[in-house]
Write a structure and sequence with these properties.
Strand content of chain B: under 5%
Radius of gyration of chain A: 18 Å
CATH superfamily of chain B: ABC transporter involved in vitamin B12 uptake, BtuC
CATH topology of chain A: ABC transporter involved in vitamin B12 uptake, BtuC
Helix content of chain A: over 70%
CATH superfamily of chain A: ABC transporter involved in vitamin B12 uptake, BtuC
Number of helices of chain A: 13
Distance between the termini of chain A: 41 Å
CATH class of chain A: Mainly Alpha
Radius of gyration of chain B: 19 Å
Largest interface: A-B, 53 and 54 residues
Shape of chain B: globular
CATH architecture of chain A: Orthogonal Bundle
CATH class of chain B: Mainly Alpha
Oligomer: heterodimer
CATH architecture of chain B: Orthogonal Bundle
Shape of chain A: globular
CATH topology of chain B: ABC transporter involved in vitamin B12 uptake, BtuC
Number of domains of chain A: 1
Number of strands of chain B: 0
Strand content of chain A: under 5%
Structural class of chain A: mainly alpha
Distance between the termini of chain B: 33 Å
């Protein structure tokens, strides 16, 4: 399990877990679960676009994540947030299905893109994960206060001249980057499980934002480690363990908090 | 040539026209309520979760429509039970259920691939299999569609009131929670039909797209529903026609029907914005 060919998987998984846990804290307090689900799902055809153009899949993923962020912002002018997110998702998947079909041989990778494939992270893939992870973590820490204020007390944010729309755009941009980075490993459909389960538990344990954010990253790390280990032992997909572990621990935390209340 | 030879005599095309047509009608009508109630995420989540049923059907060899239907109805019940009353927590709980459902889909598809050593199931379940639906499924499919329409018809007024103003509905004695559950049930029927045709993850397109476009034009709910149904039918039937014709554009390679359907929905949505601006 800790053989040399698995080292990169453990490193990549750990970076992704920490970033997803940190970003997830804001997903939960900003009520952005649908966006956190729709961005990765709409982004995954970016890999097929990159395959058609013959470039590194990561660039395709970043481009589609960028389209998704812009799409949500543009549609939100005429629609409520959930409808804007849904329309963006439709738009990206519509283009995506065409690209997947045109790059015919690519279809076999669809399962891995949707549900993740942790075994087999190469050195060349590890570097961008580390760089993007660093950028996203830095961005989240630098914009910690505006992101927190616009979510928790819009009045105070307005008094300090922080634009909620701009803060949201910044947040979605960071979320998009985190998505593009995590997607090839965790899979488009289950990135958001890491971004909702751990922070929800952390919020139930602590109301202090800084501590809850760190705790969320720590829980996400434990969850990914458990998922990699279980996936290695059973050969079952990583996404299955992440999805069910997140749901089980969220259920347990809700049961515990209602028992204490 | 608009209609390529054989369009109206081809059995898979006829089956697709019927099943996609009923999916479009039910999804568009339900979608109007779904948007008014702010439940687009729940609608999308039900569709995604139903993919676990599609994968289970593939694994066990039962009919996919029964798989989608069973899991979608179960998921609707689960969402109703675990969903907290507060809106902000509601999305989170929906997301966690969705994650669990997708995790199970991942496992079932993986087991399906290892047991049957075929790899097409992920594409079929997620992106639909419009022209591979056997004609024998038409009666079951129509029964699901009629059941959905009957429920919508029976609860139309209370559902509308509970969607537009839950507080007023509660004061008037409308059983708001039961109505919400029935709405989720209709949603799961709509999702089943569209998952069969354009696929589990794309069924949001039929649910949200036509309804969002119609709600930008029509002011009255009944008019919005009628318009949404028309938009849904135009997109589905138009998409099937274009996909059929596309065989002649790029010889030997058919363009995906789901692409044409979402593209038409999108054009209709953009046009609905112009109509309002003018």
């Amino acid at each position: 399990m800790f053989a040399s060919f698995m080292i990169n998987d453990w490193i990549a998984g750990s970076i992704i877990a920490i970033i997803a846990g940190l970003a997830g804290f804001f997903v939960v307090i900003r009520g952005a679960t649908f966006a956190a689900h729709a961005l990765p799902l709409g982004t995954f055809p970016g890999a097929a676009a990159a395959a058609l153009l013959g470039i590194n899949p990561l660039w395709g993923l970043i481009a589609f994540a960028g389209l998704g962020v812009i799409g949500i912002a543009v549609f939100a002018r005429a629609q409520r947030n959930d409808v804007a997110t849904g329309l963006t998702l439709i738009f990206l998947l519509g283009i995506g299905i065409l690209l997947l079909s045109l790059s015919g041989h690519y279809a076999q990778n669809v399962y891995a893109l949707l549900f993740g494939e942790i075994l087999g992270v190469s050195n060349a893939e590890l570097l961008p994960v580390a760089i993007i992870g660093f950028i996203v973590a830095l961005g989240l820490i630098v914009s910690f206060r505006p992101l927190l204020l616009t979510a928790l007390s819009p009045d105070l944010a307005a008094a300090r001249l922080i634009s909620p729309a701009r803060a949201n755009f910044l947040f979605l941009g960071l979320l998009g980057l985190a998505t593009a980075m995590a997607l090839p490993v965790v899979g488009a459909l289950l990135v958001f499980s890491l971004m909702t389960g751990p922070p929800a538990i952390a919020r139930a344990i602590s109301r202090r934002p800084g501590f809850a954010m760190a705790l969320s990253a720590f829980i996400a790390l434990l969850m990914v480690w458990a998922a990699i280990a279980l996936s290695y032992l059973t050969n079952w997909p990583v996404g299955f363990f992440i999805g069910t572990l997140a749901a089980l621990s969220y259920g347990a935390s809700r049961a515990a908090s209602s028992a204490l209340a | 040539m608009i209609f390529a030879p054989g369009f109206f005599t081809n059995t898979p095309v006829q089956t697709a026209l019927i099943i996609a047509g009923s999916a479009a009608i039910i999804s568009a009508a339900t979608g109007v309520f779904t948007i008014i109630r702010g439940q687009s995420f729940a609608g999308h989540a039900l569709a995604d979760i139903s993919s676990a049923g599609g994968a289970a059907a593939f694994l066990s060899g039962i009919s996919p429509i029964l798989g989608f239907l069973g899991v979608a109805v179960l998921a609707a019940g689960a969402l109703d039970i675990i969903t907290p009353r507060r809106a902000a927590e509601r999305d989170l709980a929906t997301g966690v259920v969705l994650g669990a459902g997708l995790g199970i889909t991942a496992l079932l598809l993986y087991l399906g691939v290892t047991l049957h050593s075929t790899s097409g199931a992920a594409i079929t379940v997620m992106f639909g299999s419009m022209f591979a639906i056997p004609a024998s499924l038409i009666p079951l499919n129509l029964a699901i569609g009629v059941a959905a329409l009957v429920i919508i018809g029976l609860i139309y007024r209370p559902l509308l009131l509970a969607s537009l103003n839950p507080d007023l509905a509660a004061i008037r004695g409308v059983p708001v929670r039961l109505i919400g559950l029935l709405h989720l049930l209709v949603l799961s029927l709509a999702v089943t039909l569209s998952a069969m045709t354009i696929g589990a993850i794309l069924s949001t397109a039929l649910l949200i797209g036509p309804a969002a476009a119609a709600l930008r034009i029509a002011r009255r709910p009944a008019a919005a529903i009628a318009l949404a149904v028309a938009f849904g039918l135009i997109s589905c039937w138009g998409g099937i026609l274009l996909a059929y014709d596309s065989y002649n554009w790029t010889p030997g390679h058919t363009w995906p029907v789901s692409f044409f359907i979402t593209a038409i929905i999108f054009v209709l949505y953009l046009l609905s914005g112009i109509r309002r601006a003018g």
